[in-house]
């Protein structure tokens, strides 16, 4: 890939992320900040896990995640309990309320996106899904995840790079 193409891609990915947050954020009625919704989404994907594993999946520091988990536990959206194999470690998982909130949120966002992309054919939508999955997969390969994790650590837990 040529440098100019990579620069264009960086710009478009950045702008796409902002546009997506603005568009789909308008459909948001959960009252949760995007970072907390992100924690719930990852928990829904990975299932019950240690907080350290969850922090790694989210590319955030453990201290940042601890505050977020505390807020989600207080809201009744996440459950935390001691690991039966190592009582010094906590396991976290979605509660029924957290699962329901995500389901309702996913439905609202999907309907909003379906409305916005109403002129797209099913084929165009599938092509977009395929491209986005490929991009996500590339970004989430171990060397890239390590680089992001290292960058987060160097920025003292801030999640912007």
Could you characterize the architecture of this molecule?
The chain is mainly α and 161 residues long. It folds into 2 domains: 3-113, Arc Repressor Mutant, subunit A, CATH 1.10.10.10; 121-161. 68% of the residues lie in helices and 11% in strands. The protein has helices spanning 3-25, 34-46, 51-58, 62-74, 96-116, 122-139, 142-154; strands spanning 49-50, 78-83, 86-94. A 3-stranded antiparallel sheet has the order 1-3-2. α3 packs across α4 (62-74). It is globular, with a radius of gyration of 18 Å. The two termini are 22 Å apart. Mean pLDDT is 84; it is low at 156-161.
Summarize the structure in short.
With 161 residues, the protein is mostly helical. It is built from 7 helices and 3 strands; from the N terminus they run H-H-E-H-H-E-E-H-H-H. Helix 3 crosses helix 4 (62-74).
Q: Mind sketching the topology for me?
A:
Elements: H1 3-25, H2 34-46, E1 49-50, H3 51-58, H4 62-74, E2 78-83, E3 86-94, H5 96-116, H6 122-139, H7 142-154
Antiparallel strand pairs: 1-3, 2-3
Helix pairs in contact: 3-4
């Amino acid at each position: 890939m040529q440098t100019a193409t990579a620069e264009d891609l960086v710009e478009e990915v950045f702008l796409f992320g902002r546009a997506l947050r603005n568009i789909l954020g308008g459909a948001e009625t959960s009252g949760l900040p995007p970072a907390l919704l992100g924690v719930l989404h990852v928990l829904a994907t990975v299932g019950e896990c240690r907080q350290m594993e969850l922090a790694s999946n989210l590319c955030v520091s453990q201290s940042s995640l601890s505050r977020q988990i505390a807020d989600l536990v207080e809201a009744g959206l996440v459950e935390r309990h001691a690991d039966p194999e190592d009582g010094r470690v906590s396991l976290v998982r979605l509660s029924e309320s957290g699962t329901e909130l995500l389901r309702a949120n996913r439905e609202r966002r999907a309907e909003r996106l379906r409305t916005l992309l109403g002129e797209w054919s099913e084929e165009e939508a599938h092509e977009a899904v395929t491209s986005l999955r490929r991009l996500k997969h590339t970004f989430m390969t171990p060397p890239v995840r390590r680089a992001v994790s290292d960058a987060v650590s160097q920025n003292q837990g801030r999640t912007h790079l």
